[in-house]
Specification:
The protein is of the alpha/beta class. It has 15 helices and twelve strands.
């Protein structure tokens, strides 16, 4: 295929799930940011993506495909027989993989997710055992995450017990030597595990610390606990698929082996399911340090929580456990102590308002009275 002024592209996505929407958002952002001259079409996967969708509304074929979920067997076979540039996003198709020309794959780095989960759990303290809860029917990504997780745990002299679907999860939890560090292949399975622990009277995270994958807030709500979770790069995968298809367009004679791109996980969201007592103390220590460093500016609880890498709700819980006050109260205490020190040294209210970034003198007066229970004039130092 020679270089064209405009490429006709079909993207196959399910927008029913948050993960599909995130991937598709990354696709759109990358197309827009690089000003690709593409005419983009979309269709749903499965029974909706058939051979009829191989032509657009004008009867023209497509110059390229981005496929995040497969269509029916006939359409996948037809694409495999062609040499139309095709990018598979976190899926496999043996017929396309065997094609010698113009095929690229974008994969989530599941091994990276497993290693990140293991390292996070090991930072929370010492354990007597490790465990891994697979997703239903143990798909490939579950096995890849488990293998990397087990490797890190083995280096730290912990054997990893595996739980597969079909067994008794409550019995498996009972038999784990405690305390245990457990990774679940997804937040859905992590929520199942938390519920099983609760039914068995096993404390999470003190007896079983748990990390999932996906940062699926709906699962957090289902089990009644914020789940520590490996956040995967869904938008990055969508963006990578655009870059790969652009590469295939720019290299029409590319006929070497299948191209593969690995997208690493982004970070670990720190929730209540993995933070044991010692780790909570470290969160408190780091939070207080950040508050002290930012005491002369209008630092917010949300900013502190973001820099800690956890939710505001979880940061508040840690602060309440460690020093008996939530983030906003800890910030106010430090800022007002600093303002009081400046007043005692003879600084004016105007100087303090300006230097400490209060919005106005009136705001400062209101906070001062609420905090100390008296006005500045009523202060013994005044």
């Amino acid at each position: 295929m020679g270089k064209k002024e405009c490429y006709n592209v079909m993207a196959v996505y399910s927008l029913r799930t948050w993960s599909g929407r995130d991937q598709f958002a990354g696709t759109l952002e990358e197309i827009s940011s690089k000003k690709h001259n593409w005419r983009l079409h979309t269709t749903r996967p499965g029974k909706f993506f058939t051979k009829r969708e191989l032509l657009d509304e004008n009867g023209n074929g497509f110059d390229g495909f981005i496929i995040s979920l497969p269509g029916n067997d006939a359409v996948m076979a037809e694409i495999a027989k062609s040499d139309i540039p095709t990018v598979l996003v976190n899926i496999t198709d043996r017929r396309l993989a065997a094609r010698a020309k113009a095929v690229s794959t974008v994969w989530l780095d599941n091994a990276d997710a497993g290693r990140r989960a293991a390292r996070h759990l090991l930072e929370q303290g010492s354990y007597k055992s490790a465990g891994f809860v697979h997703d239903v029917d143990t798909p490939f990504y579950s096995t890849e995450r488990m293998s990397a997780f087990r490797e890190v745990m083995k280096k730290n002299r912990l054997a990893t017990s595996e739980f597969h679907d079909g067994g008794d999860l409550r019995a498996w939890v009972r038999d784990l030597p405690k305390p245990a560090a457990v990774m679940a292949a997804s937040d859905m399975r992590a929520a199942d595990l938390i519920i099983a622990c609760r039914k068995e009277g096993v404390s999470v995270p003190d007896q079983v610390a748990i990390v999932g994958v996906d940062y699926d807030v709906a699962q957090h709500e289902r089990c009644g606990m914020s789940i520590s979770s490996v956040v995967i790069g869904l938008r990055e995968m969508g963006a990578a698929s655009v870059r790969e298809l652009d590469f295939l367009f720019r290299h029409p004679n590319f006929n070497r082996r299948l191209r593969e791109t690995l997208v690493p996980a982004k970070r670990v969201f720190i929730g209540a399911s993995s933070m044991r007592s010692a780790a909570t103390a470290r969160i408190v220590e780091k939070a207080l340090k950040l508050i002290d460093e930012g005491k002369t500016r209008s630092i917010s609880p949300t900013e502190i929580a973001s820099r800690l890498g956890c939710s505001r709700q979880f940061a508040d819980r840690c602060l309440m456990a460690g020093c008996g006050k939530p983030l906003h109260k800890a910030i106010e205490d430090v800022r007002m102590a600093e303002a009081q020190r400046w007043l005692q040294e003879g600084d004016s209210v105007g100087d303090i308002v300006k230097a400490m970034h209060f919005t106005s003198a009136n705001q400062f007066y209101r906070i001062y009275k609420r905090h100390f229970g008296r006005t500045i004039r009523q202060s013994p130092e005044a």
